[in-house]
Amino acid sequence: MKTGLSRRSFLKAGAAGVAIKVSLLPSPTQAELIETPPRPGADWLAAGGKPKYRLDAIAKVTGGKTFSRDYRARDLAGWPKEQAHAFTLKATRVDRVFDGIDLGLLGDDLKPDRLVLHEDLVADGVAIPVPGFYGDVFFVPKGQTARLLGQPVAMLIYHDFARYDAAKRKLRFNDKVVRYGPEGPSTTPGPYGAARYVRIDGGTPDAEDRYSSLKETTIRAGFKGEEPQWPAAGDGDAMARGMAAAVEIEREIAAAGDDALVLRRSFTSQSADASAMEADNGNVWYDRASGLLHALIATQSPYEVAEMAAHIVSKSTFPLKSIDLKIGYTVGYGTKDHAIFPYYCVLAGLYGDGRPVRLANDRYEQFQTALKRHAFQMEKVMVIDRKTGRFRAMTGRYRTDGGGRENFSVSVGTVGATAAQSIYYLPKSDFSATIVSSRAVDAGSMRGYGTLQTMAATEMMVDEAAEALGLDPVEFRRRNALKAGMKNSQGAIPSGAMRHGEILDRAQQHPLWANRQTRKAAFEAANPGKKYGVGYGHVHKDYGTGAESALCALEFDATGRLKLSHVAHEIGTGATTSQAVMAAGLLGRQPDETEFGKVRWPQMPLETTDEPYTLSQEEEDKRKANPRWTPSFTSPMSASNSVYYLGHATREAARVLVDLAIWPAARSLWSRGIGGGQMAPEAVRREDLRIVDGRVTAAAMQPLAFAEIAAEAHRLGLVTGVTVHSFNRWQWAEAEFDLPDTGKRRFAIDALAVKYGEGAPAARRDLMTQDGWHFVERAAVFYPPAQRNNAGVTYYAPMATLAEIVVDTGSGEISLLSHHSILECGNQIVPELVSGQIQGGIAMGIGHALKEYLPLHEDGPGDGTWNWNRYELPVSKDVAVWSQTSEVLPPLSDTDPPKGMAEVVMIAVVPAIANAVAHAIGKRFYSLPITSEKIREALA
Description:
Blueprint: E1 30-34, H1 57-61, E2 84-90, E3 96-101, E4 114-116, H2 118-124, E5 152-158, H3 161-171, E6 178-183, E7 193-200, E8 219-220, E9 222-224, E10 227-229, H4 238-254, E11 260-269, E12 272-273, E13 281-287, E14 292-297, H5 302-314, E15 322-328, H6 341-350, E16 357-360, H7 363-369, E17 372-373, E18 375-385, E19 391-401, H8 409-419, E20 428-436, H9 451-469, H10 473-480, H11 500-509, H12 511-514, H13 516-526, E21 530-542, E22 548-556, E23 562-566, H14 575-587, E24 593-595, H15 617-623, H16 642-670, E25 689-692, E26 695-698, H17 706-716, E27 719-728, E28 734-739, E29 743-747, E30 751-756, H18 762-765, E31 774-776, E32 780-782, E33 796-808, E34 814-823, H19 831-850, E35 884-888, H20 909-921, H21 932-939
Parallel strand pairs: 1-15, 2-16, 14-15, 19-20, 23-24, 34-35
Antiparallel strand pairs: 2-5, 3-6, 4-5, 7-8, 7-20, 9-10, 11-18, 12-17, 13-14, 13-16, 18-19, 21-33, 22-23, 22-27, 25-26, 27-30, 28-29, 28-32, 30-31, 33-34
Helix pairs in contact: 8-9, 9-20, 10-11, 14-16, 16-17, 19-20
């Protein structure tokens, strides 16, 4: 039985026997981000630390910003100049066995210089990384059926572009090239997993729960065919008790009387494509003589790509000494996070006969093979007290189609189930996720991660319930919204204040909502044949994975030149800008040099098996006695983890540098002179330190420039460089470090390395043995217990959207007139980036609600004929681009952390539109997208 709990739990029971250790990486393994010049100028930050433009803005507007896709071998230092190219042939049938390929159409002139088949990989010992997660084979073996539609059967490599291009054009759409034999047994894997989250409170929100996942356990199931087999109910172990609680909820629903509204509905949410403008691509050069593998690959997870590439090659007949991975700017919306495509690029390089080989999807291939958004089938029940208008119970059965490779399907399904309660407090709840396989294209961590599907359905159902109860939909939400200290459906208390009440107040007072009935009457009187409606959606999206980890380094020289190094890299969210702004805000100085996408950290000799979810508490307690052990080394880039999780490493590195360098250096400068200098008359404390106009001051002390402090810190031999490693399991890890001449200090990190200034004594400088750094072995560490993973999530960002629409009753066309959104995301690091995420996310949500749709099977993208001529995306006229507005709640204080908000912004608009349609024509829809055909059918 597969037990993946979290979205990053790909090393779990389903991948038994695979334990990838960082120490197994070839040494030295290098990775770097190819950053596009020009760098920002000295005017980048305005007074107060506000950036005038994105870090990469000049390059963008001048056409100089490059992506991974833009590079060829000749552009990369040290690479051969001759560029080879490759493409794959794919199976478009899964019912008949693969019987080889027929390249006769190419003639002698266009035959590939190298043909790679499954049997070649077997002979050379090249195995799939993480079996199960990435499937079991790269290419369909001869004599077997394909696992999924669009699975590659062969790779063709050409030493020149002209022959490659001509051959690819000849073979495209030709159904005679891939040969099929007789019908064969299915090789599509079995169901991927099932999990159930049951909770019954103790009578009040504050009382101890009778049962919850956090208190007891998440319930797991095996399968009989495609149906989950849940444990028997009883008073035995925790799962049996959980099933007894589930039975109790079912009985209560069945016995509900006239004093309760029992609403049962079925919903479907479609498969969709991320449609990132940069299709998957990579360029790999393998030099057999030296054993070096050089790669430039578009990915959101560079560390994982480096690990897995080393893993698959090191077990083969290809000698391997080192991997040099370069990554460029990229955009993926989750489709480049733990995708299989980079490993096909590695295969191309291995078989390139010493030449760099470029493998790059065109748009047809991207539709055929790129990770998709999961299709969901949902059965939901709500029980509401008619007198109070409050929830008594809610249940949901969520069936997720993961396609022919597992990828993150288990965690997408379970995250969707845990999010299904949306913003509401539920005294009793029972949500289960069943994640099945199919012959469809595999789906992964696409933006929204299952929560778009389940929360949109909940919000559509909430509106229908309010109508049945005769309550204003906003008022109904107000009665049931989570308040601070209340528990989620897993029994965990979310972080911080729940500010849904403030959002509801603003929504209720907004003219779109307050005047919706009078506007409807006036509009429809003036526009015969058209129906006006306003709808509301209100959600909150979790951010994080339960195993978020990051590394950041900040260091300065004696002149005050500051360098920032970070694992974060740019995927379009503005992460590189926000990390630099965070550092500048705490240090009073913008980084003069930045290094993003950094994977090689020799100053951090950490050890891990990257099993943050599956390691038992007992085993973890043993391992953490090793001062170099960590549950996870680093996280990939995702839409919502940069500002909070990756930013935590930046903020902690800056705070440590302030504590160990800036504060003592400033205090030394202020104490100069007779009698203790200007500082002596005042009681100056560390908490008094402030950065004002880029200068350091405290309690009326003379403001100091960063350069002055840097020079003093180096003169005194203080810490002048800090590297930190952070880890979060729905709570931050903390550790104590015994520092020379400083004593024990506790920080919200689990590993620390430092550099000492030029004036440090020899004994202290001798400690800097890790590539010029002193790795400080921690004296104690405090990791959140593994049980915290049963919380599912504790961090949320809320978003509400009002949508104003018109339905043409003749054509069925839905037009979006305007929309207004209300977001709460703590302190905004760069408000302009938040605004950009809101606008872009809402456009994606509108597409999901009204336009985007992919059939799952033979008539879907796996057949290789889909492109944007068939897949309809929203354009500016569809998203009310000139009439959209938004507002962001002000933070509660200047210490509010920023929240990960880049995913939540796309969700609320989906139910808002569906609810607006119901307001307009009195018809509700339970299947997305809501197309003009569905409207005409409903009105017929």
